[in-house]
Amino acid sequence: MSSTSNDAKSTIHERDIPSLADQSVSSQTETCRTELSFCLPTSLAFFKRLTWEQTPWIGSTANSVSANPINMLDAQTIAQYLNSHLPQTVTVEAIRNAVLFGSTYPASPTTITASPSPSEDISPICTSPHLFIIFPHAKGHTTSNPSFLRPWHDAIVAPAFNRAWRDSFLTRIHGAEPDGLTRILAPTGTHTSHDALPAAGFLSHLQNGAPTCVRTQWPAWTTDNWGLGVEGRDSGARARVLDEAWDAMCGMLKSYPGMEAYRDPVLLAVSRARIYVAGDEMNMAGKVRCVVQEWDKVVDARFVRSGSFKVVFQSVAGVVEVEEENEEMPRVWIGDATGRNFKRMGEHDDEGVDGRGPDGDRDVDGHRDKRVRKSGDGAHAD
Fold it and tell me: Which run of H or of E encompasses 216?
């Protein structure tokens, strides 16, 4: 760099420094993605396929961000935008202490009961929408409280879970109902191979600090008629069975002694899947639609609070570098030095100035401009 250039930069006045705003004449969104979307389901039937997370105290991550428990920043965002859709106020602390109840999973899962290692936070079970249960009136860390976990598992969830499997007709039912009319032995009730195990074994994981997640599946209906792996005409059965299960759980919470602080539960669905959408080529409604279409693959939109679905987008925008065009500026000549008449080169005015024709222009001294005029004899100059 020359010394002249350095001297110019060292002596420039502050007001003469070019601004970034001058360079931001045009900009474009280079990338736009979401890693957080959420809504308020009204029932377990919101999910077409649902796990039951039986060790909800074990943390998990999705895309290197805490998925369970819900981190502070996400909890603040969720509380800010969802409280207007709820009959009671839900605090950030209550969202942070929400119990991970389950997760959706692909229509053809491999082994969803296996626990992914901490490094496998992009597996389908981690990036699929999670279902949390918020207890607005409870205090403290619910997921690590054995006095809550034992009755919650054994007396609230397990009976609804077992009944859902029996009502699904997707598994063989053994035994007889206690009020059955035809009996050989004294009826001991019915059971299936999917009946829930007691909480005692899972609580030993909590006491021993075992890092292994344990989960099972709620009933899921699948039709293979077209190889699509969807529930087809069984959507009604799934909606009925899971909706009745949620109603039963809420009813047990109202009447079970010692569980008063856990009444009025709120369902919260959260997805931390990373979804990229178009930048400037798509408006905001189109971007939201792209995310909603991913949810539609695994949820039933009939069971969600209207207007509660929210998407948090992250956009990176940059200034578009505009190349200067080196177009030659049009030349002009002044027909009247007083500024009354400006003409571009090549323009003609048969009337001239003051109606005196093209050769009637005079300068400020009153001299006639010299022009080349064509005549029949040739070219002459005045």
Answer: strand 215-217
